[in-house]
Structure formats: C-alpha cells, structure tokens
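Justification of resources, computational component.

The compute hours requested in this renewal are based largely on the per-chain cost of generating structure records like the one below. Each record pairs the submitted sequence with a full structure-token output. That output is archived, and it is also reused by downstream analysis tasks.
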Amino acid sequence: MPPNATPPTHPVNLPGPVVFTHGDVVACNVLVTRGPHPRVAAVIDWAHAGWYPWYWEWCKAKWVRMPDVWEEMDDAAQEEWQQRWLPLVVGPLPDEGVYYPWLRFALAHV
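The structure output for this chain reads:
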C-alpha cells in the first residue's frame, strides 16, 4: 500500500469482539460421529485459523466450496452442507446485514 493511501474499511460495521476462529469450516474439515444422532467429534486443518471479527467464520464458511476433486461433494451435497449442516456447526447470521456486505468486501480484494 502506498504511504499516503487509506487502508480499506470493512463494510460490515457491526460491534463485537475479535475472536480466534478456524477460518476454513468446510465439510471435509468437520469430523462427525456415526449413527442416528451425529455430533461433531473434531475439527481438523487449522491452517487458516486466526483472529477475526466475530462474524468471519460464518461468512467464510458460507462462501467457500469444496474442490471439484471430491466426487461426494457434488452441487446437491454442497447445498445440503450449507443449508442443513453448516448452521449446526457455526451459528447462522443474516445475509442482508452481514454476509452480503462481507462478500462484496471479500470479492473486491481478490
């Protein structure tokens, strides 16, 4: 960044803490128990972990898709992960006030 440049501001201006978060909550990183009442047994691959705003985990998890090399994670399975299972792992937040502004910010800086 040039010396006189103003750093970009984040459009999601919600009060709240900065928290330590996983940063890559996708289906293959969440290990669950077998049986009729699955529970989260472990969360693996902490390479993207760090200190982020409290809403970061939900926004990033909602945006990220599994690589195409995973045959089990076709479009229908990815949709099921995001709609059914992700809200059980990471508490959901509203699209209008949190996710869409975060997404505009994220895509503007890729």
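The CA atoms of residues 8 and 77 lie 35 Å apart. The longest strand covers residues 18-21.
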